[in-house]
Amino acid sequence: MTIQAGQQSAASPVASQQMRAALAALRDQPIPATSKGFGRLAAAGRAPGAANPSGANPGVGGPGAGGPGAGSPGAADGTAADSIVTSASLAGRRPYLLGPDFVLPVLVLREAAMRQNIAAMAGYCAAAGVGLAPHGKTTMAPQIFARQLAAGAWGMTAATIAQVQVYRAFGVPRVLIANELADRGAIGWLAAELAADPGFECYAYVDSAAGVRLLDDSLRAAGARRPLPVLVELGQQGGRAGCRSMDEALAVAKATAAAATLRLAGAAGFEGNIHGDSAAATAAAVAAFCRDLRTLGDLLPADPAGTPHLLSAGGSAYFDIVARELTAARPGHSRPEVLIRSGAYVTHDHGLYAAIGPGAGQPGRTGPALVPALELWAPVLSRPEPGLAVASAGRRDTGVDQGLPVPLRIRHTGGRETPAGRLRVTKLDDQHAHLSVPEESPLAPGDLICLGISHPCTTFDKWRVIPVADEEYRVIDAIHTFF
Amino acid sequence: MTIQAGQQSAASPVASQQMRAALAALRDQPIPATSKGFGRLAAAGRAPGAANPSGANPGVGGPGAGGPGAGSPGAADGTAADSIVTSASLAGRRPYLLGPDFVLPVLVLREAAMRQNIAAMAGYCAAAGVGLAPHGKTTMAPQIFARQLAAGAWGMTAATIAQVQVYRAFGVPRVLIANELADRGAIGWLAAELAADPGFECYAYVDSAAGVRLLDDSLRAAGARRPLPVLVELGQQGGRAGCRSMDEALAVAKATAAAATLRLAGAAGFEGNIHGDSAAATAAAVAAFCRDLRTLGDLLPADPAGTPHLLSAGGSAYFDIVARELTAARPGHSRPEVLIRSGAYVTHDHGLYAAIGPGAGQPGRTGPALVPALELWAPVLSRPEPGLAVASAGRRDTGVDQGLPVPLRIRHTGGRETPAGRLRVTKLDDQHAHLSVPEESPLAPGDLICLGISHPCTTFDKWRVIPVADEEYRVIDAIHTFF
Fold first, then answer.
1. Whole-model pTM?
2. Which residues, in sequence order, are CB contacts of B331 under 8 Å at separation 6+?
3. Nearest to B182 among A186, A273, A446 (CB)
């Protein structure tokens, strides 16, 4: 049986009452005045000069506690004082991102790009015959999870129990924990959560007999009532977790099948850490790893109840190769149920994934047409040397682990925009960007720089509330993150 | 006049009713079940399996909405279900950090170490005759700000208006913005905030005539009612912001003095980006820069009303050199009012600041006795190769920009602790640590690794609520951050 997007959607209660209610509450939650970027708009309702714990600390007083006040240091356009600011209220307000309502630097999520990416990936997976369990660690944003699930995702992927706890607080019904579990207390929490909600389905990884014992013991100690489905993880020598040989993986599978609290549910791996000497060498090594994973899946003992095994791999860089290799016809074997776990596709980027993702036009690569959805806007603070500008954006505002942000455009005082040209970010401090500037450039304090980012995962986690803008930079929504 | 810690404390309303009320509300705010590490303890009160927006989203229903529930997947020790969890309630509960109440990985702030650092730094500054404006960007934790202010700090330093907005939401009365301002909307907010609260005192930097014009124009447009005190920033060639010559700085000072909305209040600089070929060369270059800054201060036109100028420098690495150079006797000049701005001292670290801070026993360096206060605890997930372990902690949990975390101890299953020995972190992914392990080590899944961190600024910002523990790892408080 092949997982189809439509089937997944039908099989999992993606729009459960529970999830809808939690998201509706989130969308009606006052955006705290302490949320970076929103400090002016969100503070419009508080009394001038007064400390406002209900603004500072979301909703201590509940909606209404931070209601309209007179004479507040509100937004210049007069619309912000109408009522408290929530994600839901922004669709009606439509404040301008680059006007006085928002405090810079600010990260913005472009709605049209995100919508395109979600649809393109759903279409790609349906056509490729693979299921999608988007890695929620990228955004940790339940509002985005809901859109991914509504587009047909099988469920959400998580890296840690802490992430699962966020997912469960918002009613996500099906979770793949793409990781071993080794925190006994956390496993106890998971057992209780599974016992409390028969509709909650959760998968995890195992890669050693010791890990199987730890998981089995912890689940027993917690009085687990139904077996936890687990995937045997295959790794690479010098890589991260995962068994280093087929024999080892099959031994772990055997130990799993013998553990009363576990159910052997398939095999998984992660190809995102594989690096070759060239793009072609990396692609070949990724493909070879996927074929090994496929072989492991073929060799696993069948589930006693006949439940088909899952086969999962696929980060955000090489998921096209994963899909191709794991679904390829193999004489004498049925096509497995394949789950890919890409997370970064939802916003793509102007750096890492633009360079190595399947949309980058690399030879032999196929994939959905993804477009970058995140931009970071920052004002120039200083032009202290002819070749140097300093802008107000730093490591606190964007990930730098996969490369520095990329200047896209300059918005000059007065509103005229020009391409960034030879402007380059050379270094980020905690709160500052150092930019190399052509000496003849008129770039001056107060000009705004629009930066593309590299690696959405470590950019989302710098922001608690992210404005969502239309193509005219009117803010029509805001996404809450839970890192 | 020399700033004395005691005088600062008396001069600024550090324990204003406003700040006390905001902090009391924060301490009584339910810790969301979505707070990393607290997912089990904080969820104890919610109905099993139910989405809980009031837990997920701090306090939508206000205190009490997430009250005790029966049959919840609560903590194993039975204490957690007594009532909702707040910072204030933890002093009575005293849950054990390394037991089932907390979900790993978890960052912990050791109370005794933090207390020592705050007291040591206050004592150091008083003895050195310098004021302390701790950089709040390190922790963005108003609960910590209050302790720094209560220990005599002059006020808080901020890098951005967004940070000032957090400070103001908690009633911080005096703020040094150690940065130029170039976001017109944000400057408008600041003008309104200053107009609304005559007790609010705020300083910012200027480093160009263009910046002075932008600030003056924006303050005029906002109808600013009292002049904003600004410090002329002196920089270094190849450095960050700041004037590159004395002449340039004096020209900016002149432009400032001529701007009706500004008041020339002194000079400032940042020595933390200065690097020499050796520790001694760096120290010498830092000292030379501080002497230039001192000279600039001496050359500035006096304030027409006779208000003494401020002179500020001092990050967390070289503040002892700053204090020495800026307070050194100069024939014919009075001793200036010096403000240092260290932020990281409050927790110190096991990396960058342990190596280059004044407590590191470097020749010719003097400083307070600081001790590392932050630890990151993570379980081993996998030992896939004899020389490799994988633990559940990554870039999402600790800063890596100034070096990888340092294994301190291993807590084996059963509770026995051993020194980390030759264990090393070799790489961090988003959610995983790769550790080099001596092949003979018995390290196994479920063992816990206690990691010291490098660079508290980029570690605090990975956590929204941080447990504070006593020396027996009983959690007695929790710190909310606002990044």
1. 0.92
2. none
3. A446
